[in-house]
């Protein structure tokens, strides 16, 4: 069999580019098995199948190519775009994640000295900007899964490494989402180790000799703060249980519910008092005061008519999204583009029933059918309090996809 030269593609290779261009994953899968010499070959523009699949934002094709050993560093592209540059331009955050997990250096520059994240910002792919900027390589976390110095056991059990990684790279900084993530990832039983690890990660980031990422250090401090707030709720729940021994345990993780209710509880003018106070405490406790992110957050919180602290934090860590941002957010956990909404008033959106259930204790005060006008609705629906659980269940069963 004659080996191919760089510029001469065989028929299978040519068709592979064609299938990727057409997003024909099934056709692509069939052809890829017929390749004789690996997946790192280029078309007339110097692009590999991996780069094309990234450009198309085709997660499945990207995954197949990576599984087949595609080299993320193999680059013949004239403008020096890495697969991450193409992924960032495609707008698909999952493809960005796959390439980051494969070990790409996110600071790699293209021929016009732009990083992938800057390219994503340029075309308005904010989620990709956030995905790339919040990324932490697995290997920086491995240290904490090993026994260090006087420790008897590591701060993070090695088996939890992947879960901890998922937790740390999450881009949604809403405290409710952080708590729900800890719960769904099964990390609640290790809050103490998690808190210590995040403190150490913050410290280590700020004390690096070069390439200090202040924003990530601040994020680690913030995540550690939320974890310690959850631990406080856990203590309170334990104390309450001791007081009322005759009451049956309401559920293992009732402290998560306590924390979430605290976060979502609005005062009379719709502000989130608890979050406002605790985030201000969180800033006050940030140990590195001589850095840009600290000064920026402090000056914004001290401004006349400041934005909510959570917004200040989000903007500080993830950057401003600009005025044209009309993205909708889950009223409970702040996730982007939730696809469910309250079937009764159609005014608020949620990721799922759980998010709706958690927010209902606040939302029931303002929820009403869209036919009644705003002033009438508040007086009628809030007067019916407390709404019995049967009504909430009925409400939840009616949740619709918008
Ligand atoms: Zn949600
Ligand atoms: Zn409603």
Structure description:
By secondary structure, this protein is mainly α. It has three domains: 11-133, Serine Threonine Protein Phosphatase 5, Tetratricopeptide repeat (Alpha Horseshoe), CATH 1.25.40.20; 139-318, no CATH class; 340-401, no CATH class. 52% of the residues lie in helices and 1% in strands. The chain has 20 helices and three strands. The protein has helices spanning 11-21, 25-32, 49-55, 59-67, 83-90, 93-101, 116-122, 126-133, 138-142, 161-169, 175-184, 191-206, 214-243, 254-264, 273-284, 292-302, 309-318, 353-363, 374-383, 389-397; strands at residues 340-341, 349-350, 400-401. Strands 2-1-3 form a three-stranded antiparallel sheet. Strand 1 (340-341) and strand 2 (349-350) form a beta hairpin. Helix 3 (49-55) runs antiparallel to helix 4 (59-67) and helix 5 packs antiparallel against helix 6. The radius of gyration is 25 Å and the shape is globular. The structure holds zinc ion (2 copies).
Distance between the termini: 56 Å
- Based on secondary structure, the structural category is mainly alpha
The total beta strand count reads: 3
Shape assignment:
globular
Q: What can be said about the biggest beta sheet?
A: 3 strands, antiparallel
Question: Numbering strands along the chain, what is their spatial order in the largest sheet?
Answer: 2-1-3
* Quaternary state of the chains: single chain
Q: What gyration radius follows from the Cα positions, in whole Å?
A: 25 Å
Give me the number of helical elements.
20
Task: Give the total of domains.
Answer: 3
Helix/strand order: HHHHHHHHHHHHHHHHHEEHHHE
What fraction of the residues are assigned to beta strands by DSSP? under 5%
Percent range of helical residues? 40-55%
């Amino acid at each position: 069999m004659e080996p191919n030269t760089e510029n001469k593609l065989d028929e299978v290779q040519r068709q592979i580019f064609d299938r990727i261009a057409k997003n024909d994953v099934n056709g692509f899968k069939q052809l890829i098995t017929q390749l004789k010499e690996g997946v790192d070959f280029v078309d007339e523009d110097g692009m590999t199948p991996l780069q094309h699949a990234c450009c198309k934002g085709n997660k499945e094709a990207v995954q197949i190519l990576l599984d087949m050993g595609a080299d993320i560093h193999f680059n013949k592209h004239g403008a020096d775009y890495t697969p991450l540059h193409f992924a960032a331009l495609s707008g698909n955050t999952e493809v960005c994640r796959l390439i980051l997990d494969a070990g790409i250096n996110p600071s790699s520059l293209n021929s016009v000295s732009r990083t992938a994240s800057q390219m994503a910002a340029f075309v308005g792919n904010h989620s990709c900007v956030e995905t790339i900027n919040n990324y932490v390589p697995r290997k920086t976390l491995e240290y904490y899964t090993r026994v260090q110095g006087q420790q008897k056991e590591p701060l993070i059990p090695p088996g939890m490494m992947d879960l901890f990684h998922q937790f740390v790279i999450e881009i949604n900084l809403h405290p409710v989402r952080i708590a729900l993530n800890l719960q769904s990832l099964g990390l609640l039983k290790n809050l103490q180790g998690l808190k210590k690890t995040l403190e150490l990660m913050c410290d280590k980031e700020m004390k690096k000799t070069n390439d200090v990422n202040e924003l990530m250090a601040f994020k680690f401090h913030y995540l550690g703060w939320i974890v310690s707030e959850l631990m406080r709720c856990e203590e309170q729940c334990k104390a309450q249980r001791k007081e009322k021994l005759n009451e049956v345990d309401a559920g293992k993780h009732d402290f998560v519910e306590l924390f979430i209710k605290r976060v979502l509880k609005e005062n009379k003018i719709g502000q989130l008092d608890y979050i406002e106070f605790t985030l201000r405490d969180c800033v006050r406790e940030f140990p590195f005061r001589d850095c840009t992110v600290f000064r920026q957050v402090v000056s914004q919180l001290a401004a006349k008519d400041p934005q909510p602290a959570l917004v200040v934090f989000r903007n500080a860590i993830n950057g401003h999204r600009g005025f044209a941002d009309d993205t909708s957010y889950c009223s409970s956990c702040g996730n982007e583009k939730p696809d469910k909404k309250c079937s009764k008033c159609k005014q608020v959106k949620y990721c799922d029933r759980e998010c709706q259930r958690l927010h209902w204790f606040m939302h029931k005060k303002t929820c009403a059918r869209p036919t009644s006008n705003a002033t009438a609705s508040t007086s009628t629906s809030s007067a019916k309090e407390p709404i019995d659980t049967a009504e909430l269940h009925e409400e939840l069963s009616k949740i619709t996809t918008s």
